[in-house]
């Protein structure tokens, strides 16, 4: 069975923290591939500043093109909205019975896992690879055999900060994967860029 790590996100936009984390997991943990699953609508987030999902997928595809073990996935585009991780996992497992899926999540998400749809079933059926996030104490997190805390580098970087910097006209070329800043600027995806 192929072991695939699933990194869910809005990727609005994808930034170097996403890629560095995925790179670390490929080299130091069990997954053989990382699938970046673009979430059209997260049940816990507002869609106010959200770029169209196809644009986010296009940016992500450009950002990961040099790493064959990375895959940009539009799998959730065809599922009901908002997207729930357990529903996506059920569908993926059904369509890929030869794959073993782990969910990659930040400490912030683990600490709020009890708010997720069918959280207990998610914990029982799929390993969670949990990376540290600044300001979130994993000592307070639920313990479970399927929860693995990984010692990935900590990046205090978010897509919100990236959007705010772009909208303020900042040149943050090196906080984004190669070519992404130019693509965003050339296509005027965020005002003021």
TrEMBL record:
Which GO BP annotation is one of this protein's?
Answer: NAD+ biosynthetic process
Q: Which SUPFAM superfamilies match?
A: Nucleotidylyl transferase (SSF52374)
Per the UniProt entry, the Enzyme Commission number(s) are 2.7.7.18
Judged by the first EC level, this protein's enzyme class is transferase
What CDD domains does its record include? NMNAT (cd02165)
Span of domain Cytidyltransferase-like: 7-164
The record's keywords, sorted A to Z, are: ATP-binding, NAD, Nucleotide-binding, Nucleotidyltransferase, Pyridine nucleotide biosynthesis, Transferase
Per UniProt, what is one GO molecular function of this protein? ATP binding
Pathway of action? Cofactor biosynthesis; NAD(+) biosynthesis; deamido-NAD(+) from nicotinate D-ribonucleotide: step 1/1
Q: Specify the superkingdom.
A: Bacteria
InterPro entries hit by this protein: Cyt_trans-like, NadD/NMNAT, Rossmann-like_a/b/a_fold
Query: What is this protein's function per UniProt?
Result: Catalyzes the reversible adenylation of nicotinate mononucleotide (NaMN) to nicotinic acid adenine dinucleotide (NaAD).
Family membership noted in the UniProt record: Belongs to the NadD family.
NCBIfam families given for it? nicotinate (nicotinamide) nucleotide adenylyltransferase (TIGR00482), PRK00071.1-3 (NF000840)
Spell out the HAMAP family in the cross-references: NaMN_adenylyltr
Its name, as the record gives it, is Probable nicotinate-nucleotide adenylyltransferase
């Amino acid at each position: 069975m192929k072991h695939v790590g699933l990194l869910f996100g809005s990727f609005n936009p994808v930034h170097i923290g996403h890629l560095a984390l995925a790179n670390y997991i490929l080299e130091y943990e069990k997954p053989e591939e990382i699938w970046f699953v673009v979430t059209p609508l997260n049940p816990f987030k507002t869609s106010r500043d959200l770029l169209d999902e196809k644009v986010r997928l296009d940016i992500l595809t450009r950002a990961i093109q040099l790493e064959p073990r990375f895959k940009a996935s539009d799998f959730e585009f065809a599922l009901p909205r908002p997207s729930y991780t357990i529903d996506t996992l059920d569908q993926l497992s059904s369509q890929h019975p030869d794959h073993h899926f782990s969910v990659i999540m930040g400490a912030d998400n683990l600490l709020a896992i009890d708010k997720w749809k069918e959280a207990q079933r998610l914990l029982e059926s799929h390993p969670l690879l949990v990376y540290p996030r600044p300001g979130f104490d994993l000592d307070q997190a639920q313990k479970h055999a399927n929860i693995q805390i990984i010692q990935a580098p900590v990046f205090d970087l978010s897509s919100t900060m990236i959007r705010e910097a772009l909208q303020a006209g900042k040149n943050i070329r090196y906080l984004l994967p190669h070519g992404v800043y130019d693509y965003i600027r050339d296509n005027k995806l965020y005002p003021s860029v």
